[in-house]
Amino acid sequence: MTSRKKLVIFTGSGVSAESGINTFRDHGGLWEGYDVMEVASPIGWHNDPRRVLDFYNQRRAQLLNVQPNSAHIDLVSLEEHYQTIVITQNVDDLHERAGSSHVIHLHGELCKVRSTIHPEIIYEWKKDLKLGDTCEKGYQLRPHVVWFGEEVPELSRAIQETQQADLMVIIGTSLQVYPAASLVEFAPDDCKIFYIDPKPFISYALSKRNKPVIIQNTATKGVNELLKILI
Ligand code: OAD
Question: pLDDT band at 210, cuts 50/70/90?
Fold first, then answer.
């Protein structure tokens, strides 16, 4: 029996757009309404933690009211044919809820919180997080997300996976945020690259790849096209 090829699926907020979750940099995206340094950075947390908590509480509440779309769901069917791993920049849990078995969250997870002093203390969290909510050692909890200027703890695992990829599918990301956007550089030279996005951004790293297949479409339609190619 031949071993199955390794497929790395790298997603951004665009894969969840059709579930009703805002992207960041599109017209009407989240970063038009919020100052990223105020709500998603250590200095923002230091200056006004209540504002930061409000921002993530709104995101979490919204997440609990949306569902995976057909792109999340169709991607799961690739697991029957490929050794599949999803590496997502998204803090939502829509890949897991759709049924993906292996998901790496580069930028953290909305439905988890962690201790500000003991980062290894992490809890599942579905309700609002408030000032005064503490870990078992008595320290304030914060969202378990990666803020601008913070390390990306899952990056090395994501790089290792990408280095073994036979195929890489990039979906719904503007490839603007590093180090996540540099992942494609770690794919082997002979790794076939697909990129699904209604407004694809051919980054420098992507432009150096041998003929990436650009599927200029929304995630739901684009993944549908992709399945016809890959299965
Ligand atoms: P962006 O808002 O930068 O990019 C969203 C991408 O999704 C764009 O390329 C859009 O063209 C595409 N898009 C929009 N609608 C789509 C649809 N229906 N189907 C498919 N694609 C669609 O969001 P990201 O690239 O995800 O980080 O942003 C990366 C990181 O920046 C986020 O993880 C977040 C943000 O700041 C942190 O907060 C640390």
Answer: confident
- For residue 187, the tally of other CB atoms under 10 A from its CB is 24
Question: Could you report the per-residue pLDDT of 7-32, keeping only the tens digit for each?
Answer: 999 999 999 999 999 999 999 999 99
Q: State mean pLDDT over 69-88.
A: 98
> Could you tell me if 189 and 29 are in contact, meaning their C-beta atoms sit under 8 angstroms apart?
no
Cα of 171 from ligand 1 centre, angstroms: 9
107 included as an active-site residue: yes
Closest CA to 124 of 60, 204, 71: 60
Q: Is the CB of 97 under 6 A from ligand 1?
A: no
Ligand 1, residue 11: give the atom nearest the CA: 26
Query: What pTM does this model have?
Result: 0.98
